[in-house]
Amino acid sequence: MTLDLPELPFPLRPYGPDGRWSYADGVLTGVAGSRQDRFVPPTGESLESVSDAPRLLGAPDGDFQLIARVSVGFRGAFDAGVLYVHVGERAWAKLCLEYSPDVPTVCTVVTRGHSDDCNSFTVEGDSVWFRVSRTGRAFAFHASLDGERWTFVRLFTLGDEEETGSALVGFLAQAPTGEGCTVTYDHLEFRPAWPADLRDGS
Predict the structure, then answer these.
(1) What is d(CA 81, CA 31) in angstroms, rounded to the nearest whole number?
(2) Is 76 exposed, middle or buried (0-12, 13-18, 19+ CB in 10 A)?
(3) Rounded to whole angstroms, how far apart are CA atoms 87 and 64?
(4) This protein's superkingdom (predicted)?
(5) Half-sphere exposure of 17 (CA within 13 A, CB side)
């Protein structure tokens, strides 16, 4: 099964648990089930309950920016709506609007074998704009409160240029500790270019 969105030049395919993905009137919706997450603990904890979450991914060509406003129906700690980058089973990254643990927070996870975890800033309400960009082997994460002025969050790589050139990019919903949550993505936009400046707000 694939899902074609008019805003994106590549089809999307579901991965992991059933996310009940749907699209209507410019809004993409996904649902995380109970205790679904994607995280490889650096502390070596068991992965049984935190190994997978619903993802909807596609493969863009070349340099790009993927933009969406993410809204989360928070119900439990660490519920999140995510823009996600996947290079391999232990090489992937998340840009999350997460209830962390009791206030909406922009946070990131970059996994190279094991995951790190970094909170950036808190937001009011249940929505924020996200942007993930790629050029060559580099990825960048940005967040925005209005979709106009962007805050630089993170710059990283997940492998060499050949590996990252075939990366899958898209959407993830998670509910690591709770009974599940619904995530929506709207104002979707794709730009076939790297941002002109990562740190000037553009």
Answers:
(1) 10
(2) middle
(3) 16
(4) Bacteria
(5) 21
Label residue 193 exposed, middle or buried (CB < 10 Å: 0-12, 13-18, 19+): exposed
Dist CA 158 CA 111 (whole Å): 8
Which residues, other chains included, contact 25 with Cβ-Cβ below 8 Å and sequence gap of 6+?
Answer: none
Cα(30)–Cα(125) distance, integer angstroms: 19
Task: Spell out the per-residue pLDDT of the chain, length 202, in tens.
Answer: 899 999 999 999 999 999 999 999 999 999 999 999 999 988 876 554 347 999 999 999 999 999 999 999 999 999 999 999 999 988 999 999 999 989 999 999 999 999 999 999 999 999 999 999 999 999 999 999 999 999 999 999 998 888 888 999 999 999 999 999 999 999 999 999 999 999 999 9
How far apart (Å, rounded) are the C-alpha atoms in residues 91 and 20?
25
Residue found by looking up tokens 């929505």 in the block: 127
Q: Are 190 and 66 in contact (CB under 8 A)?
A: yes
Which CATH architecture does the domain made up of 13-43+50-191 adopt? Sandwich (2.60)
Q: What is the CA radius of gyration of the chain?
A: 15
Quote the distance between the C-alpha of residue 97 and its chain's center. Answer: 9
106 touches 153 (CB < 8 A): yes
